[in-house]
C-alpha cells in the first residue's frame, strides 16, 4: 500500500472541517456496505453473445461495466460513478489510493460462473474479502489519525491517551491478522479445489495486497507507539528540567541586592553554595532531558514517510530544551559570579564594619568632649591657658584621625563599588532573563545598601569635618579670648594702678592735711609763745618803767643807797640782756614763722597743685568711668540688638551650613553619580552588544553616526567659538591678573574681616547657645507641665476603686487630643466618634483615654497627608525645598502644601514635625511668600473668620458666603477626606461624610462632587491633573517615621545645564524664562532624555545666530575683510564701516580669511580692523554686551541707551536691524537672540521700534550701487562659503 505524503500544517478550523468531511464519508461508506449485502445476479447469456466482452462486477463497493460500442455512454457514466466512490474510499482512509484494480474479476471467472452455485461461491468470497478489506481500511483510518501529533497544554496526558488508543488499534490489527490468515487458508483451499489458475492468481494478488497493508499497519502502529512513548518521556523530562530551572531562577531573582550585615552575606553565600551543590546533584535531569530528546528524534526518524513525522514539534522542543540548557548554564554562571563577588565583598565589609564603628563612637565621644569643653566656665587666665592646652591636645588628636577617616571613607567607597557591581550583575541577569523569556518581572523599588553606605559616608565625613572645624575654630576662639583676657588684664592692671595712685594721692592729701593741721598747731603755739613774749615784753617794759620810777625815786636816795643802785644796775643789765634775748628770740621766731609760712605756702601750693592734678585725674577718671559706663550701656544696647541680629545670623548661619553640607553632598553625589553613570553606561553598552541583533546594531551605528555628525558640527562651531574665546582670554589675561591681584588683596582683607566676624559671632553664638539650652530646658519643663495638666490622670485600681466599689470618673477629665486642640469624650459621643458602651467604659474606668485614642486614631489624628517627596539619592525633602530645586513645578508644590495646611499641619519631613503655618514660616520649612496662601488653606482646619459671626465657620459655609470659591473648597475637602474624613474645625476631629452632612459640614451636592473624585491636584511627574487619593496611593511609607513620601524621579541640577551663548554662557533656566526653551524640552533636559549639545543644535539660531556678513568676495583676490577691502578701495569707507559695525553689534568681528570670531579689542590687536575704528566699533559692540550707564549699575540695552540719550535712535535702529537679520534682538544680559515679540516683553525694544524694524528701513549702503539698502537685502545677495559657512558679499 502506497503511503500518503504528509500535507502541510493546517489550522484548527481546517482540521475540524476535514474531520466533518471524513465523518460524512464514513456514513456514506457504511450506507454502501449495507447496500452491498444484496448482490445482483446476472442473466445467462446466449451462445451468440459469447463474443461480447462483458465484465460483471459485484455491486457491494462500486460498479464498473464494459459495454459495446453502442452502449459507450452508459459505460462512461458508470465508470464516473465508480471513480467517485473510489475517491470517497480513499478520503476515508486518509490516503490517496490508486483505483483498486484487483477488484476486477477475470473475465474467465465470470464466464465460468454461469451456474448458480459458482455465482453464489464467488459472491461469498468477494463479500468476505470485501469485509476484510473494509476492516483493514477502517484500521488504516484509525492509524491515520495518529500520523500528525498535536499535543495540548498537558502533553504527557495527551501522549498517554494516544498510546492507549494505538494499543487498542494494535490489538484490532492483530485480530485482523488472525482473520486474514483463516480467510486466506480457507479461500485458497477452495480455489485449489476449483482448479482455476486465473481465479487463484487473482485471489493471491488480493491476499498479497491485504497482507502488505496489514504489515504496513503493524509496522506503522509499532513505530507510532514507540514515537509517542519517546515523546511522553521527553515531555516529562523537559517538564522536570523546566520546573527545576524555574525554581532556581526564581530563587536567584528574589534578591536584587546584598546586605550590610556580614552574617547575612555569609548566610547567602552558604545558600548559593547549597544551590550550586543541588544543581550538581540534579545535573542528571538535564542529561536525561537531552537523552530523551535524542531518543524521541530517533523514533520519529523511524516513521516511514517524512510526512508522517512530527519534525516541527520536535524542532520546537529541541529549541526549548536548548533554551533550558542555556538557562541552566546561566544559573550556574550567575551563582559562580555572585559567589565570587560576595567573597570579594565580604572581607571589605568586615573591615569597614570593624573600622567604622570605633570611628563613629570616637567621633560621638569627641563631639561630647568638645561640647563639654565649650560648656566649661572659665574664670581666669590660668584656667584659660590650661583650657587652651587641653583644646590644643584635642585638636591635635582630631587632626591625627584624618588618615583613619580617609581610610574608613575609602573602605566605604570600596564597599559601595562592590555593591553597585553586584547589583549591576543581578540586574543584568534579571533583564537578560526578561529578554530571554519575554516576560516582564514585577519589580519593587530597590533600596540599595549603597544608599545607606553613602549616607554613612556623608555622615562620617560631615561629622568629622564639623568636628575638625568646630575644634579648630574653638581653639582660635580660645586664643583670641586669651589675648582679650590678657589685654583686659593689662587694662585692669592699669585701672588698679590708677586706683592705687588715686589712693596714694588721697593718702598724700590726707597726710598734707594732717601736716597742715600740725603746722597750724605749731603756728598757733608760736603765736601763743609770741603773745606770751609780747606780754612778757610788755611786763618787762612795765618793769622798766617801774624800775625807772624806782630809779628816779632811788636817785633821790642814791647817795644813801649806793649798793642798792649797783644791784639795780646789774638787774637792769640783766633785764636788758633778757630783753635783747627775748627780742632776738622773737625775731628768730618771726623769721622762723615766716620761713615756715613760706614753706607751708610752698607745700600748700604744691599740695594744691597736686590736688588740682588729682582733681583733673579724678575728673578724667570719672569721665573715663562715665565713658566706660556709656560704652557698657551702648554695648548692652548693641548686645540686645546683636541678640536679635544673632537670631537672624543664626538662621543665616544654619542656612549656610545646610547649603555647605548640601553642596558637599551634592559634590560627593555628583562624583559618585558620574562613576555610577559611567559604570551603568559600560554595563548598558555591554548588554546592548550582547543582546541586540546585527540589524539593530547597524541601525544604532547609523544613528550614532548621524548624531556624531551633528555633534561634530556642533563641536566644530563650539571649537570656532572657543578659539575666539581663547584669543580673547589671552588678551584679557594680563588685565585679569592685575584684577586678580587686587581682588586677592581685597579677598585677604575680607577674609580677615570674616574671621573677625566669625570669632565675634562664635563667641556670641556660644553665649546664645547656652541661653538657648537654658530656654530649651525651661520650654521642656513647661511642655511637660502643660502636658501633665492637659492629660487626665491614668485611672488604676487605687484611683477608681474604694472599699471594693468602682467609682465613676468625672467626664470633664476624659479629654482626647484632636488635630489642633483637645476634645472631650462627651463631644466625641455627640458627634458619633464614640459609641455609648465605650463612653460608659471610660466613665467606669474600664478603658483608658490612651487606649481609646489608639482605636480612634483615624478620627483624632487622621492617616496623615503627603509629607514630602523622595528623590533617589537625595532622599526625602519638603515640597518647598523640592520646588526651590526645581524638582517639581511651583503649582504642584503649592497645591500639596495647601493640602497639608487644610488637614491640620505643615509637615517637616526631615525633622518629622507637625507645624502650624506660622511656625513653618518661622523655621523656613515654607516660604514667607506663601504664608498668606497657606493661612487661607489652614482655615479649612481651624475655621474661617466671618465678620457676621463670632465663631469661625466651616469650609462649606465659607463657600456659600463667597469667602472661597467652590473649587478651592472641594480641593481642601478632598484632601481632608483622603486623610480621615471631613475635619470639623470646632471639634478638631475627622468625621465620616454622612456624619458631616448631619452636622452641616457639607451638603449632598458637595458629597456627590467628592464621590466623583475630582482631579484638582497636579502629578509632579506627568504634570497632569489627578485626585489627591491617586497621589496618596503612589506614596511610600517611611518605616521609622510613618510619613507618606511621594517618589519622584531624580533630575539633573538645573545649574548644570549650561549653554554657550553669543558672548558668554547661559543657563537652561534662563533660556526657559526668556522663552527660548519650552517646558517639555526643559523637563527632558532635567530627566536626561536630551543633552545640551542636542538642544544647542536645535536652538542654534537663538544661541549663535545665522551669522552676519563676514566679508566680501572679489574675483581673483577672493575673500577679504571689510577693512582690507576698504584699504584696497573695493568698498567705500562709509559702507565698510557700517558693515563692520553690524558685525560688532551682532557679537563678534569676523576674520574671513582665518574663519575666526574676534572681539573688537582682539580684532584691533590682530590687525583685522584699524585702530582708528576701535572707539566707534566698541560703541557698536556695546549693542551686544550692553552700554555703560552712569545711572545704572548694570549695562543697558540698545533701547535703554536710546532712551537715556547715549546713542541716537537712527544708530540704534541700524544696529537692531543687523541683530534681527542674524537671529533676533540680542539680549546683552543673557547673550542670546530673542524674537521681537519676546524682546518687547523683556523690554529690550518697544512696540514702536518693533514696527519700525518690520518696515525694513534702509540703513546700510550697497557697495555696488552706493544706494541705501536694508541689511536683509545685502544678506540675500551673499554667497555661503561651503567649507566655513561664512556669508560673503560678492563685489565686482
Layout of secondary structure:
Blueprint: H1 12-35, H2 72-93, H3 107-111, H4 116-144, H5 155-194, H6 197-253, H7 262-281, H8 283-301, H9 311-374, H10 381-400, H11 402-437, H12 449-556, H13 562-691, H14 694-790, H15 797-800, E1 801-802, E2 805-806, E3 815-817, E4 822-824, H16 825-830, H17 836-844, H18 849-855, H19 857-860, E5 866-871, E6 875-877, H20 879-884, H21 890-902, E7 906-908, E8 913-915, H22 917-922, H23 931-942, H24 955-960, H25 966-979, E9 982-984, E10 989-991, H26 993-998, H27 1004-1011, E11 1017-1018, E12 1025-1026, H28 1028-1033, E13 1036-1037, E14 1044-1047, E15 1058-1060, E16 1065-1067, H29 1068-1073, H30 1079-1087, H31 1092-1098, H32 1100-1103, E17 1109-1114, E18 1118-1120, H33 1122-1127, H34 1133-1145, E19 1149-1151, E20 1156-1158, H35 1160-1165, H36 1174-1185, H37 1198-1203, H38 1209-1222, E21 1225-1227, E22 1232-1234, H39 1236-1241, H40 1247-1254, E23 1260-1261, E24 1268-1269, H41 1271-1276, E25 1279-1280, E26 1287-1290
Parallel strand pairs: 5-14, 17-26
Antiparallel strand pairs: 1-2, 3-4, 5-6, 7-8, 9-10, 11-12, 13-14, 15-16, 17-18, 19-20, 21-22, 23-24, 25-26
Kindly describe this structure.
This protein has 1292 residues and is of the alpha+beta class. The strands form 11 sheets. The chain has a 4-stranded mixed sheet with strand order 6-5-14-13. The two termini are 99 Å apart. The protein has 41 helices and 26 strands.
